[in-house]
Amino acid sequence: MFIKSSKTYDVVAALPFAKDAISWCEQNAVPDLIVMDVMMADGIDGLTAAGQLKENYPDLKIIIATSMADADWIDKAREAGIDGFWFKTYSNISLLEVLDGVSNGEVVYPADPPAVSLGELPADKLTGQQREVLRYLAEGLTNREIADKMYLSPNTIKDYLDELMEKSGIHSRVAMVAQVARLGIAVSESDRVKEV
Length: 196
Known about the structure:
Blueprint: H1 2-5, H2 18-27, E1 33-37, H3 46-56, E2 61-66, H4 72-79, E3 84-87, H5 95-103, E4 117-118, E5 121-122, H6 128-138, H7 143-150, H8 154-168, H9 173-183, H10 189-192
């Protein structure tokens, strides 16, 4: 809607699945710019597809968009050489401004991750290991299963969760998972990557 209302840009395709963007570029003239959502049902996710597109078409400009607040995706997008990143829900810049910047050769990323909190704990204060624990927790894994995945002891995982509960003020696993899922603070890989 934003792009169609613009006098600057023309929409050449609107595709429901990330994998469709790859096949579309193989069968048509490669567009100047693609806006790709991280969370795309059926097949590979938007970040994976965007990375493959950048490998195949290095001059193609790509903007990753998401309504989830998982700041780790910013790092993954940078590593893949993605030109822009836009948080739909939490951004103080419009999509058209990001499009303009990227079209003019700028790399446009938010200065800071979204200012959201897990209870009383600001999401940007979560460590990488805490985010990983939360991702596995959101997948419904037990402490032992999380420990096995992270090559840690179950007691260490319990300590991580106790600390998260204390700092966030959220004192149940169910409530913690509900907050993580609602805010998209630490989306599980199985939610992001939906292989068929």
